[in-house]
Design brief:
Strand content: 5-15%
Distance between the termini: 12 Å
Largest sheet: 8 strands, parallel
Shape: globular
Number of helices: 11
């Protein structure tokens, strides 16, 4: 069954203004209020609780060089999230983690690396491939999570407990960046498959999903950052960029990919940018429908 895990962390994001806390940590509660948990439970899922992080701190003025924002808290949260995912997977269930920002991918990667490793399907409006080898601006893991997940970052986050790289780059797929993404070429040289949003929209969903499944192999982790959606339909994210997918295409793609996934995570929705809750309801519908078959192909 699907086990819903809430990870209300904004630790990997830059502050929207000095001293402020990014609003993505509110997403699990907003989606619960929008009916996501009720729908999953009605379909046979369960509530696997919350992994709450330490408080977010704007540490720009005190953070030493060679360290990411909220590094100690982020590492501690990743370890605790990995432990919770171990418990869910040991029970034979498929975890669906609701963030928070996409730095929670480190916790998922740590859990899976300790179990022998899996592929990764990274659906995101950005490659998130910034790392110390290509940028002097490393600080926010939410823009660096994919690079860290395949071992291209400082060991403090890319090699937790000696488990890195968390995912094999050859079995890692990224889909969804816009054509002006500055790290797309390096991602193409490094990963098993990289598909832009424009290329994804130009292909039939079933054929696209088959390419992804072949590249990642069965039992991959499925990470969705909702800024993959076009801001005309999902503006409630910290970095909206035009040229993204529509809701129908993304829901269909998730429905194709979820059955062969060992688990999944959904990140970067910001309820503070959704005052009347309309985008939370849209996202709850999309997640319930798109991830409804999570892990089902692996349990046959």
């Amino acid at each position: 069954m699907i086990a819903l895990v809430e990870a209300p962390s904004s630790l990997g994001l830059r502050p929207p203004r000095p001293g402020a806390v990014p609003g993505a940590w509110r997403a699990p509660a907003a989606l619960r209020e929008a009916g996501l948990l009720d729908r999953l439970v009605a379909a046979g899922g369960r509530d696997a609780g919350e992994v709450r992080p330490q408080p977010y701190v704007d540490d720009d003025a005190i953070r030493a060089a060679g360290h990411v924002r909220n590094e100690h808290a982020l590492v501690e949260h990743s370890r605790r999230l990995a432990q919770r995912l171990d418990e869910v997977l040991d029970a034979g269930d498929a975890p669906l983690v609701i963030g928070g920002d996409c730095s929670i991918l480190l916790g998922a990667g740590l859990a899976l690396a300790r179990r022998g490793g899996t592929g990764l399907v990274h659906l995101d409006g950005h490659t998130d491939f910034r790392h110390p080898g290509n940028s002097e601006a490393c600080a926010s893991v939410a823009g660096e999570d994919l690079a860290a997940a395949v071992g291209l970052h400082w060991p403090a986050i890319a090699d937790l407990d000696g488990a890195g790289p968390y995912f094999d780059a050859a079995r890692t797929v990224h889909l969804g960046h816009r054509d002006d993404d500055e790290h797309a070429d390096e991602a193409r040289r490094t990963l098993g498959l990289v598909v832009s949003a424009a290329d994804a929209l130009a292909r039939p969903v079933s054929r696209l999903a088959e390419r992804i499944r072949v590249a990642a192999g069965a039992g991959y982790w499925l990470q969705l950052d909702v800024d993959l959606l076009d801001p005309s339909v999902m503006p409630a994210v910290d970095s909206p960029d035009p040229g993204g997918l529509d809701v129908e295409t993304l829901t269909a793609l998730l429905a194709e990919l979820a059955p062969a996934a060992i688990g999944a995570s959904v990140t970067v929705f910001d309820p503070e940018l959704d005052p009347d809750g309309r985008y939370a309801r849209l996202l709850a519908d999309m997640v319930a429908e798109g991830f409804g078959g999570l892990g089902s192909a692996l349990r046959r």
